[in-house]
Amino acid sequence: MALPDTASLPPTRTDFRDRTVGRLLRRPSALVGLILLAGILAMAGFADIAFPGDPLDMAGTPLLRPGDAAEFPLGTDMMGRDLASGIFHGARVSLLIGGVAALVSLVIGIGIGALSGYYGGRVDRALMRVTELFQTIPPFLFTLALVAILQPSIATITTAIGITSWSGLARLVRAEVLRLRNSELAQASIILGASDARIIFLHILPNTLAPVIVSASILVATAILTESSLSFLGLGDPNVVSWGGMVGAGRETIRTDPHVAAIPGVAIVIAVLALNLLGDGLNDVLNGKGERR
Amino acid sequence: MSDPIPADPVLAVDGLSIAFQTRRGLLPAVRDLSFSVGRGEMLAIVGESGCGKSLTALALLGLVPTPGRVTGGAVRLEGRNLLALDEAALRHVRGARISMIFQEPMTALNPVLTVGEQIMEAILEHEPVSRKAARERTLALLERVRIPDPARRFAEYPHRMSGGMRQRVMIAMALAGAPAVLVADEPTTALDVTIQAQILSLIDELRREQGTAVVFITHDLGVVSRYVDRVLVMYAGRKVEERDTRDLFADPFHPYTQGLIAAQPRGLIAAQPRGLAARSQADARLPGVARERLTEIPGTVPALAAMPPGCAFAPRCPLADDLCARTVPPPRPAGSGLVACHHAGESHAI
């Protein structure tokens, strides 16, 4: 016996994704964020083609202002290094550290949050105490201490930022898992004989993805800021150019030649702003403001 | 219609007792419940909210929600006592030998997976088959639960389906492991009447085709009367009557059962007048109720913490006397089944 049915068209996976992306693109702030982020990604990708030399090499007369010389569109710093080259190559470092640190943080945060929320009881109490311990230490000071002990390099900075920034995410994931663990969906899966791993990875975590994606974009932004601050304080990787390091180097000439510090500063602002705009847009789309999927 | 007590039951519940652990001690919610279901048989457990029927349903799968715990008895599935198994062993039984469907299929389905993927996962959980084979079995299952155009429906998300379709998907998932027993906990309550009938007849067809034993949990005696072989009536955690469906409706023995049948809005018994219009004080007496007009049972179910020492139904029962207030009536053979009442059969032989 055929049932009359409400659904009309056969939907597919891509159908659902297209609609999410489409709705994201219809939000002006998210669109601006995406375009800015794409620009920064392009800068990072084409850094070697646009500026083949080492950005830390002295390239011309020191302290040229933007527009002073055609070959240095953004001018040079007090060591005669090309600022434009530094911005392009610095985008690489910032995005790499931001992305990988956020990934480290996601793995730890989701892992701890999922175990804590799913198993509850003693496991939950132990893991949450550890999380609270991490929350009580100011993250920036913690990162600073770790980097100072481990010697600054891209790897140690990334790890340190990752290790110090997962606690909020762990609590978020724990709350979501706790909610879904007691849902009928989880009950039904248990009743149909699903294993813990299958319930967590197949039925629970995919349903917590929306808030996690949103906080991931903010995590990347925070990681970029933290790395910049570290570099500004002279705890960046000395072998690579980074935006924070450039701001730090420009500090000495801030009265006479403010552009040296201002230009990388603007780059940081744009990158962080782009990620926040994207995060807001994702939050609206995924967490169901307006239309329901 | 099969034997009232099947010779070789697939599922046998023996003296099952479940209690809630509270600060003031154990509160018994299900007491000394016994029943069994044979291959291809359909048993309805009927009772009002809080009588312990859903708790019983979960206990059949070895799942008792905290703070409840099993305080006695056994649940034997194909001879094995599920209550003695550990979690790992239970996991291999659940979904494979005994399965369950629920009231609200939407909340039991994963919104981010297509229905096909979910059924496939249910198959892969229990059997080491290739994804291709699992996919083919999924399509066959969708076909078996009468979902039109299975290949297309495979790729649909649950929110794109109607309630009846979702329940069909749930049934397909529950049947993925070809279980011997299917527990159905009010699976049609959230559906409208025409879909209700379709789902019920689907379950009925499937158990006839595959020999699956079905335990149907419901509060609505009328809905299931056409499909089930036997009815078990629960009241305040105890079985009060268990009979073949036809006998039960023709001549209910327990005053509570009589009240339930008489409270059906449509005349399920030929002698009962249709509608609720005529309701008078004189009719509120229970004896011979099937032939009179009674539309409700006076009073409410006693709270778990304030259970009377004798028959739990005594405070609401017009037949109750001192004996009922003092001692719990033991179940005794009556017609094609059992009844637990001191006074059943006094007006006529049972």
Order of helices and strands of chain A: HHHHHHHHHHHH
**Tell me about the biggest sheet of chain B?**
8 strands, mixed
Low-pLDDT regions of chain B: 1-6, 267-290
**What spatial form of chain A do the alpha-carbon principal axes imply?**
elongated
Inertia-based shape of chain B: globular
Report the portion of residues of chain A in β strands.
under 5%
pLDDT averaged residue by residue of chain A:
87
Q: Provide the CATH topology of the domain at 85-286 in chain A.
A: MetI-like fold
Estimated radius of gyration of chain A? 23 Å
Q: Mean pLDDT score of chain B, rounded?
A: 84
Helix and strand run of chain B? EEEHEEHEHHHHHEHEHEEHHHEE
Number of strands of chain B: 12
Helix/strand-derived class of chain A? mainly alpha
Distance between the termini of chain A: 30 Å
Main location (chain A): membrane
Family (chain A): Belongs to the binding-protein-dependent transport system permease family.
Pfam families (chain A): BPD_transp_1
Transmembrane segments (chain A): 29-51, 95-119, 140-165, 260-279
Q: How is this structure best described in words?
A:
Chain A: This is ABC transporter permease. Chain A: Keywords: Cell membrane, Membrane, Peptide transport, Protein transport, Transmembrane, Transmembrane helix, Transport. Chain A: Belongs to the binding-protein-dependent transport system permease family. The complex is a heterodimer of chains A (293) and B (350). Chain A has a domain of 202 residues: MetI-like fold (Orthogonal Bundle). Helix content of chain A is 70%, strand content 0%. With 293 residues, chain A is mostly helical. The longest helix of chain A has 37 residues. In chain A, helix 3 runs parallel beside helix 12, helix 8 packs antiparallel against helix 9 and helix 10 packs antiparallel against helix 12. Chain A has twelve helices and no strands. By secondary structure, chain B is an alpha/beta fold. Among the domains of chain B are: 73 residues, no CATH class; 80 residues, no CATH class. Chain B is built from twelve helices and twelve strands. In chain B, the strands form two sheets. An eight-stranded mixed beta sheet of chain B has the order 6-7-8-3-9-10-12-11, with helices on both faces. Chain B has a four-stranded antiparallel beta sheet with strand order 2-1-4-5. In chain B, helix 5 packs across helix 7. The N terminus of chain B is likely disordered. Chains A and B meet through helix 8 and helix 9 of A and helix 2, helix 4 and helix 7 of B.
